Amino acid sequence: MPHPTSPARTSQRLDEAVTGGIGDSPLRPDSTLKVTGEYAYSSDLWAEDMLWGSTLRSPHPYARISSLDISEALKQPGVHAVLTHQDVPGENVYGLKVSDTPVLAEDIVRYQGEPVALVAADHPETARRALAKIVVEYEVLEPVTDPERAAHDDTLPKLHPEGNIVRYQPVVKGDSEAEAEVVVSDVYTMGMQDQAFLGPESGLAIPDEDGGVDLFLATQWLHVDQRQTAHALGLPLEKVRFTMSGVGGAFGGREDLSMQIHCCMLALHTGRPVKMVYDRLESFYGHVHRHPAKMYYEHGATKDGKLVYVKARMYFDGGAYASKTPVVVSNATSLGTGPYVVPNVRIEGWGLYTNNPPCGAMRGLGAVQPAFAYELQMDKLAAALEMDPVRLRQLNAVEEGDSLHTGQVLDSPAPVAELLARLERMPLPPEPADVPRDVRTLPGGLSNTSHGEGVVRGIGYSVIIKNVSYAEGVDDYSTARVRLEVIGGAPVALVHTAAAEVGQGLITVHQQIARTELGVERVTIHPADTNIGDAGSSSASRQTYITGGAVREACTAVREAVFARVAQRFGEDPAGLTLSGGKVVSASGAVLDLVEVLGEEPVEETREYHHLQTYKMDPVTGQSRRVHVQHAYAAHRAVVEVDTELGLVKVVQLDCAQDVGKAVNPDAVVGQIQGGSTQGLGLAVMEEIKVKDGKIRNPSFTDYLIPTILDTPPMRIEVLERADPHSPYGVRGVGEPPTISATPAVVNAIRNATGLNLTHTPVSPEQLCGS
């Protein structure tokens, strides 16, 4: 490579490699700040001359607004604005999949907590006092609270003009009237789970001189928030600019709007920056939850354990507004037989409007509910066959090349049987009789309520299938811009996407991809905002796949541009060049410092990444050549101890085997599996929003319990890497599958310990004690 003026020129091939690339586990750039409490979350935002926004919410699940008087609130000293639906500048409606949600209620409220009015004041306490002075008179109506009735009872009130059914989807394969030698059936129910993120909904809106507004917020999808907000504000997209701020957890609960439109309305109305921060009580009312479900399942098999048919009817309570209910129905029905070969299937799924709290996305969207049912059914079938439950699962497990009940052929590895085999090989914890027991290790032992009387041990297994990314014809894509330049005498890559870092470690993954593709050590992540193309939501386990793919494509384009520059200047063949250790390396081994190549002329490229095309499910048969982009698989084994006298459960061990395609960041993969498993454990034994007559009974972390470190057991984790040939680096989504498989494994273990036919999750002490 002739370049006589370059001091970096050498004839030796480089041995050095950039660390922190694909397959390494570099330190997360935000980790130290987060553990030391120095990290700035959206609730920490501040601006000069800032006002505080607050929301008046309906106390009734279903009521007609008779009158609304804001006059006294406006007289409150320090109050700068009181807004109602009449002040919405654009359309008073928004929605993720269906535009059915009012920005502020007009004549009807459909759930407890629905926003009715807004206040901006110079102090949060002043805003709260002003809310108390708003007088709303309601005509209380009888709420619709039973989703199964909402599906079939035409005498119930229609909560929306089109009725109470958001979506109905059947899936039919083979003979829907098939019979079998061994049949098991039951009715399974799942309670409403909360995402329980620790960072409340919050943001800061700053009006701009151009008549637009800038919003700094915590969200999962900047561009969909921007589109819905601009529509409600009556502004063009370019005048509604969103920037990601620190996110204190999400798990699906930030896909729907909360304070976005409200905060911008107040800022534009007052001409001052406005900050809104929900407290925990308002957060329970102000975001969607996991859909509760009622599921009728029947499995038929031969005497030797081969599945003959699966029949199911599933009802999902979407609450007052649609949110992601259509997708929940799609995922549940298309994955409702589990990772098994079933020749005959009849599944029906309903998503319903009720006057219960709105439900939407939560980790494992639409796959959690049926997995609980079909995996408890598999244990029940194994008992009826007098067969080992693991053998039964392996006997019926799908493999690559098999067809699912929707007709989609699995065109990448599906190591379901292997995952179960790996779990079985993991050592079990010592039996209680074999080791001295510390009373604190017993169920309820930390409260000194038990010394081992009535404690029994059980083991349970589960294995699940989960779709990755969006489905049914959605053109799911992401955009990335990568710039390579010289800063401080060294080559630096700048990666800019709109993808939301919600704690999953996405910014680290983007750094790893840039290091691998560009051979540079220093990679900076531009704050996510709407000044670049859409990246989609941080949900559906899709970001490493989709936005990671976009970053790789942009990096590839940058690398090719660098090679073209080298070829033009030095006459080298671009096909023989590589980037490594901040150097350009030729096929002969000669090197040129990348700093010399770039000089003062950065290279910048923007690219979109689109995955394989998917297709809608047939509305009558549910058949589709490709419903989902990709499938992921996870298996759990739970060991539990149950105090049958007190109804207390302790999960002793919760082991997982999961196929991740490629572990881009092995430490982060293990962390995701641990976190997902713990969330699934919570759903199994403690997490449930109690709703009676449409009203939440436990909207606080005092009464809504989530697992702590004392509830989280040891976890042995085995990670398989069976690459998907269609995805970047062969990756599969990681974050959701362990949440799905942990819950049925724990409940199956409790059933194994007690012999009880438990059919509701979470399992309560009352269920275990028969009261």
UniProtKB/TrEMBL annotation:
<dbReference type="InterPro" id="IPR037165">
    <property type="entry name" value="AldOxase/xan_DH_Mopterin-bd_sf"/>
</dbReference>
<feature type="region of interest" description="Disordered">
    <location>
        <begin position="1"/>
        <end position="29"/>
    </location>
</feature>
<dbReference type="InterPro" id="IPR017609">
    <property type="entry name" value="Xanthine_dehydrogenase_dsu"/>
</dbReference>
<dbReference type="Pfam" id="PF02738">
    <property type="entry name" value="MoCoBD_1"/>
</dbReference>
<protein>
    <submittedName>
        <fullName>Xanthine dehydrogenase subunit D</fullName>
        <ecNumber>1.17.1.4</ecNumber>
    </submittedName>
</protein>
<dbReference type="InterPro" id="IPR000674">
    <property type="entry name" value="Ald_Oxase/Xan_DH_a/b"/>
</dbReference>
<dbReference type="Pfam" id="PF20256">
    <property type="entry name" value="MoCoBD_2"/>
</dbReference>
<dbReference type="GO" id="GO:0004854">
    <property type="term" value="F:xanthine dehydrogenase activity"/>
</dbReference>
<dbReference type="Pfam" id="PF01315">
    <property type="entry name" value="Ald_Xan_dh_C"/>
</dbReference>
<dbReference type="InterPro" id="IPR016208">
    <property type="entry name" value="Ald_Oxase/xanthine_DH-like"/>
</dbReference>
<dbReference type="InterPro" id="IPR008274">
    <property type="entry name" value="AldOxase/xan_DH_MoCoBD1"/>
</dbReference>
<dbReference type="GO" id="GO:0005506">
    <property type="term" value="F:iron ion binding"/>
</dbReference>
<dbReference type="InterPro" id="IPR036856">
    <property type="entry name" value="Ald_Oxase/Xan_DH_a/b_sf"/>
</dbReference>
<keyword id="KW-0560">Oxidoreductase</keyword>
<feature type="domain" description="Aldehyde oxidase/xanthine dehydrogenase a/b hammerhead">
    <location>
        <begin position="36"/>
        <end position="142"/>
    </location>
</feature>
<dbReference type="InterPro" id="IPR046867">
    <property type="entry name" value="AldOxase/xan_DH_MoCoBD2"/>
</dbReference>
